[in-house]
Design brief:
Chain lengths: 541, 73, 366
């Protein structure tokens, strides 16, 4: 019976493999459901068709009007209330239509009529002529107004977008001490304009696409044509074009769909909420992916060192910036290894701890019932609970709960003898250092627990093996073809990794990411070099 | 207990490596894998029951010693 | 090159060789058991003889630039003998991997975790090594550079720390042992740490280097490694004298004597960590070479799929090799060097001679 089961499973796998092979060659996209309804000549049929396609929603407004000399032509405007700016409709569509003096003809040529409307009557800048109703529906849903004329088998889609949007403000997730405080908003055009204002180059290429069957989310790719690496851009574009999903609600969805290694704990696509960060990354040859509806802009590819870089590093002094980089890196190491090191020290290698500290730790461990691994695990888990709850808390309750958390988890647990005081300290330092590298903070929690388990198993040998495993895994990870962790190679990439070399030494763009135009700057004299003495100048005394 | 661990470990190895090879039908790869998989399994089971396996190096060493090619201690 | 498409640069090749040799800083007990306080002389002589062996390897690398060792055998001796030699070398590579794994296990058991069963330690090492081998040769090449440099730095630092404990009288009495001991010592040094470089003949097709660079990389890498080992042995003899052979790992005892202030009394942990890492890389290279040899003999390109089962085999094979540490060191001092010399020196030498003869008649015909 078992054999039958196994043989059936193997047959199924073989069959599935064959199937995969046969349709891995061609990936034909599903034929979309296009009922090719074109715009008809009768106004009423167009309007009722439109209503039906929008499931007779009550916010679809139809406005009939007459235009031309003595109102000879009838037409209708269709728009969705709330998505349009009423002023725009009035000023740029209705008012000019009402004063348009077109002659009535015996057999009005529809082409000439529509062209006349476009060229002579309307005052709007973005007008598109369409022949099929699905486009009209898409236009309505995007906030455009659709104009039908009686007797014309074409319609116009006029841009009249105007809805409530958030103004440009300081992002809450990335605050800086020095630097611009603008942040992206949920509106695609605002975001692209924010980046355009930073990079005023003709080579900045903006490319639109709509992804998501139900959401039809607008997505924009921005990159510098002469700098970006052609392999990377080709990979990104092909992956995005293959997406045939129901919904794209946030850039996180796109991130998961186009990543090189979606199951990996390390993020290979970066995100940011600030335009100057995005502009900086575009200038280095990366691609920015802007998704309508979210202020988080993706940047691809992303390297490991980027988690330690913040834009403030470039605006503050060199030495201080380098020190902060090193601090962040040490913080990252602390947050991954500190609990593991504590466990291995107190379980396996007590000889290393200085004697006085040893007494304290032994004292603390005296009354606790659990082994060190369980203690540390409880505290780490408790901290994760507090962190997650803190994000979801409604604001009024926040203060009270944080006091409870601090007292209960910290003080009371120690006094009750559940955990030892050193454990609380270690876990506290660990938890706080996790926020030094915000983009890696998710992966860090998992790695930390893995290190703890390894350490409790075999002491520092387990830690050494675990860190080797992480290093090797990082070494083989790629982000869109670019090696993720270029750890120990001595090329110009090092200038911006652990230390931040002065700006006038960073002559080249990062390897693998930038293809053309490798040199960033022209010749710059480092400020310490004395300027050439002019004729007749005396030497400094 | 030990046997269970051994079975699980070797089953995992087969799952990760043997199945893709079967899917791709590369008989040579499967042969190569089994050439070491089966002896490994055998040795593992023997180790679990603490049966001594004669060591290749020690036997070779004895052979060399009997031929006189070795250093005296 | 046809099995693994990865490429590493000449410099990474050089550092991989250096890394390989430096890890033998752990194995000095093999030699010091025989020659005690004259071990430094033996290492020096061993290095010189190894340079001779390296010359043969260099010749092979130049004459057959794109063929790994097994392919060289098949081309020089024909398919049948080539395959037989391939199987013999497969056994050699696997045994080397297993032996180094036991060394790692013993060392770790000594320093880190006394109670954990050996098989657990070995299994953990092999699992991580499997990650490295599956990543291909370029993954290994990248990291060996960094660790080699770190190893040199640590050796220098540790030597400086014990400078005040050194006593040059510990080198005496010199040259008092019977000649046979020196020959044995040199033989051991040449065969066991240094001669294992023959495995790099399996990797060299993957390296981007010209003929001139081959010489440079090979020799500088070797010299870098040999100097590190030499310094370690010198330091140990200077500090410990002729009671060296009592300790299983003399270097750790040396460092234990270094007092770096009240709070850091266990500097040897640092040394132990870097030795474990270096030995780990040596195991990864040997493991990789074994898997490539396996894939080559079965004429398959899917070497990544063979990694785990080869690893399982190595683990359990290593458990069968030696019942105790004493058997290990006795065998290593008495019989193994002869066996290894055949693999590392005699067969490559014969190969290069036969290859030369094969090419010369062709030239004379044309």
């Amino acid at each position: 019976m078992i054999f039958k089961f196994i043989s059936r499973k193997i047959k199924f796998l073989l069959h599935a493999a064959k199937q995969k092979e046969s349709d891995v060659e061609k990936e034909e996209p599903e034929k979309k459901e296009i009922t090719k309804d074109s715009v008809k000549k009768q106004l009423s049929s167009n309007v009722s068709n439109l209503k039906k396609r929008l499931s007779n929603s009550s916010d679809l407004k139809i406005h009939y009007f007459r235009t031309g000399k003595d109102g000879c032509y009838t037409g209708a405007l269709a728009f969705i209330d709330g998505l349009v700016s009423n002023t725009l409709i009035t000023e740029s569509i209705l008012r000019p239509l009402t004063v348009w003096e077109a002659q009535s003809e015996q057999e009005p040529d529809e082409e000439k009529l529509m062209d006349g409307v476009i060229e002579q009557a309307l005052c709007s800048g973005e007008i598109e002529k369409i022949l099929e109703l699905p486009q009209a529906v898409a236009g309505c849903l995007s906030g455009d107004t659709v104009l039908f004329m009686e007797g014309c088998a074409s319609a116009l889609v006029i841009s009249t977008k105007g809805w409530d949007k958030r103004s440009v403000s300081e992002p809450q997730s990335e605050t800086v001490v020095r630097g611009p405080r603008e942040g992206f908003t949920e509106n695609l055009r605002t975001n692209t304009s924010l980046i355009r204002r930073k990079i005023k180059s003709g080579k900045l290429h903006v490319e639109n696409m709509k992804i998501g069957r139900k959401t039809q989310t607008d997505i924009c790719l921005m990159y510098l044509e002469d700098v970006v690496s052609s392999d990377v851009i080709r990979t990104v574009k092909s992956r995005m074009k293959q997406l045939d999903v129901d919904a794209i609600l946030e850039s996180g969805y796109i991130e998961e769909y186009i990543e090189d290694a979606p199951l990996s704990p390390f993020p290979t696509v970066g995100y940011t909420e600030k335009p100057d960060v995005a502009a900086g990354k575009i200038l280095e040859g990366r691609i920015a992916i802007i998704v309508d509806g979210t202020p988080f802009v993706l940047t691809a590819p992303m390297l490991f060192v980027e988690s330690f870089q913040t834009t403030e590093d470039y605006y503050t002094r060199t030495i201080y910036a380098s020190l902060m980089r090193v601090t962040r890196f040490i913080g990252y190491l602390i947050t991954i290894f500190a609990p593991g090191i504590y466990i291995s020290l107190s379980d396996f290698h007590q000889e290393i701890i200085p004697t006085t500290l040893l007494f304290t730790i032994a004292n603390a461990r005296e009354g606790t019932p659990f082994p060190v691994f369980v203690e540390t695990l409880i505290m780490v888990f408790a901290f994760e609970i507090i962190r997650e709850a803190g994000i979801r808390l409604p604001r009024p309750v926040g203060q009270a709960i944080s006091i409870v958390g601090a007292l209960v988890m910290g003080d009371a647990a120690v006094s009750a003898g559940l955990v030892g005081a050193p454990v609380v300290i270690v876990v506290a330092i660990t938890a706080v250092s996790a926020f030094l590298v915000p983009s890696q903070s998710d992966s860090v929690s998992m790695l930390r627990v893995a290190m703890m388990a390894l350490a409790s198993f075999t002491g520092w040998y387990g830690l050494a093996m675990g860190s080797l495993a992480i290093l090797l895994y990082l070494g083989s990870l790629t982000s869109f073809g670019v090696p993720y962790f270029d750890g120990f190679s001595w090329n110009h990439n090092l200038q911006d990794s652990l230390v931040r070399m002065p700006l006038w030494t960073m002559v080249k763009r990062p390897k693998y990411i930038a293809e053309g135009n490798i040199t960033r700057i022209g010749k710059i004299d480092p400020p310490l070099r004395p300027h050439k003495k002019e004729e007749g100048e005396d030497e400094d005394l | 207990m030990g046997i269970l661990a051994i079975v699980i470990v070797f089953a995992i190895i087969a799952w990760i490596d043997l199945l893709p090879l079967i899917r791709k039908r590369s008989w040579k790869g499967i042969a190569a894998l089994l050439f070491f998989f089966i002896p490994a399994l055998v040795l593992a089971v023997l180790w679990n029951y603490k049966i001594q396996v004669p060591s290749t190096l020690l036997t070779l060493g004895e052979a060399l010693k009997s031929m006189g090619i070795s250093y005296k201690p | 090159m046809r099995i693994d498409k990865g490429r590493i640069s000449g410099k990474q090749f050089m550092f991989a060789i250096a890394c390989f040799i430096q890890s033998s800083g752990l194995l000095t007990s093999f030699v010091s058991g025989v020659t005690k306080q004259d071990s430094w002389l033996v290492i020096l002589l061993g290095s010189i003889f190894s340079l001779l062996m390296l010359w043969v390897y260099r010749r092979l690398m130049i004459v057959f630039p794109d063929k790994n060792l097994l392919e060289i055998f098949e081309e020089t001796y024909g398919k049948v003998i080539g395959k037989i030699l391939g199987v013999l070398y497969l056994f050699f590579f696997f045994t080397l991997s297993a032996l180094n794994l036991i060394d790692l296990g013993n060392f770790t058991k000594l320093t880190a975790t006394r109670e954990t069963p050996m098989v657990v330690l070995i299994l953990m090492c092999i699992v991580v090594a499997a990650i490295a081998v599956r990543g291909g040769i370029d993954l290994v090449g990248k990291y060996s550079t960094a660790f080699s440099v770190v190893a040199v730095v640590i050796v220098i630092i540790s030597t400086l720390l014990v400078v005040y404990q050194m006593d040059f009288e510990n080198f005496l009495p010199s040259f008092r042992l019977p000649i046979i001991k020196y020959i044995q010592g040199t033989h051991i040094v040449t065969a066991i740490p240094f001669g294992e470089l023959v495995v790099f003949l399996m990797i060299h097709p993957n390296v981007k280097q010209s003929n001139k660079e081959i010489t440079k990389n090979l020799f500088i890498g070797f010299i870098l490694g040999a100097i590190t080992v030499f310094m370690v042995v010198l330091r140990d003899i200077a500090v410990l004298g002729n009671i060296m052979d009592v300790f299983t790992v003399p270097s750790l005892v040396t460092l234990h004597l270094a007092n770096f202030g009240v709070s850091m009394s266990r500097i040897e942990i640092l040394f132990a960590i870097i030795l474990i890492i270096l030995l780990f890389f040596k195991i990864v290279i040997l493991y990789y070479v074994s898997v490539i040899a396996m894939a080559h003999l079965f004429k398959t390109k899917a070497y990544k799929r063979l990694v785990l089962s080869a690893g399982a085999f190595i683990v359990f094979y290593s458990m069968t090799l030696y019942p105790s540490g004493i058997a290990h060191s006795t065998s290593g001092q008495e019989t193994i060097p002869f066996l290894w010399t055949v693999y590392e020196f005699i067969i490559p030498l014969v190969t290069i001679i036969v290859a030369k003869f094969k090419k010369n008649p062709k030239k004379q015909e044309a």
